[in-house]
Hints:
alpha/beta, five-stranded parallel beta sheet, 15 helices, 32 strands
Amino acid sequence: MKILVIGGGISGISAAKVALGEKHDVTILESTPEPGGLMARIANCRVGFKTFFDEIRDNEQLSVIRDAKITKVDREDKTFTVTLEDGRSLTADRVIIATGLTPYDPVEYKGKRVLTSLEYDAVIDQRQGELPPDFNKIGFFLCVGSRSKDYPLCSSVCCSYTLREVKWTLQRAKPEITVFYNDLRFFGQEFYMEKAYRDAGVKFIRANSRYFEEDEHGVTVRYYVGGQLKEERFNYVVLAIGLRPNPQLAELSKLFGFSLNKYGFVNEKGPLQTDVDGIYVSGGALEPMNIKDSILTGFGAGLLAVKGPEILTRADKQDERLYREEEPEFALSDGNLATYLFYLGTEDYTSGMFYEYISSKFIETARELKKAGKVVYVVTQNMVTPSYAELSYEEARREGIVFVHLEEGEAVVFNGDHVRIKREGRELIFNADSIIRFDDYADTFKDREFLSLYRSEPQLRWSPTKWGRKKYHAGFIRHPREKRWERRELLGALGEMILDHEEDRILPQLNEERCSGCGSCKDACPASAIEMLIREKQIAIFGPMTSAGVPIAHVKEDTCIGCGLCASTCPSDVISHSKV
């Protein structure tokens, strides 16, 4: 079978991997000079993409056509004939649309000191040498080009990317950092990172309005918070730009006949399926999403291309390694009261990963109560409603649900049916017949093994559903969120299983006697599969033998992806590979 993948970003490469794993011929059409997409533009992700792509680059059944532009598409029976701008013609039995996302260009703000997140990424890239001499005070501003009138969706990744840019900044320098936000939409283990950076002195300010005035020496920022207009100077301002559908999708939809929704993304007839038979979709062509979900949907689209949509009807019987759990029932104890207050907040950062799921459930329940004529308040620390979930949030506000957003430092006090919000200059008191709290629901989840909580970020990125070599998570137990993701994850897990052939995996072999314990391999590993252990070692000091604890690198076989980066970065040349 011939599979055509349109888009050579991380999702398209993931789809190609699965199709190649099933021994099909794959052609990737990339519209730019090199594959990589957005991921290859991020300094700390370039090596990861290259390693991922290198695994299939030399496969004899793979063709990659660069600078490709499609001018015509014909279909006869089940075969697509695609004509390129240079006159070449290709045939395909199945097509995967993986065109990725396009960053918003904030031309109204940009300057020499007002940078987009991608421009700032280039500044702090370690390959660029020294940082600017006045790198003393940096302001990050979220939701630029997202959650707006012309583009109401949340771009899903901007908050997370900003958090990582804070991390990369602090690895190179110690400037004063302030993050201005509407809501902090972190996921999984990112709430641990947020707490760590707050403890390290990073300031967070909830402020919607902002005004920038740039000069040669810095940027004056004016913002409204706590009922007051404030002004502050920064050396540099970083705009967390939103992500929008690739403009190529509009042309591709005309050529192939699949439809788009009013936001410019592909209409999803079924999980990862367009409304044209034989054409599947993955990654940013579906909606704004992060790297690990782009890989996951790529695996799923690749699976659909080689197995067909009927794979879903027998998915649960496919493999005993597939693991799912039903989400718990979410119901009020009494729905016949007059006034309800939902508190979407927690002081327990370990519960942060449940924000997305509980945000969705609180909004859904609040809207039902409002339609029944109830008075409904929602007090929020963070409303985590990524991508299309933002629309439900906006609809709830228009329907009359009262949202109260806590500013930094505000305290919430519960006393029976009274709720008091207090800080200097503001005090709000609510009386509610029923108070529904975030922690009451989050506590019921804590004994479960959620993949996104117990697996590290690098492991989740490259193996988005794999718990171990004998267990793949999908749905609620992978990461609690919107229900539409469950069947996508199911397909992704089945696709990932195709790639997990024990006999094909090459693991690094380490000579412990010669290992210096420098940690270079650990730092380079994209899967966090190397740990440093302390081993007792006999040493001679002026004759007598004694022992001391010395660091030794150790490979965790269950999580190693066999990429070889550890061997290439080891300064002592003590790592080699052999087949398992």
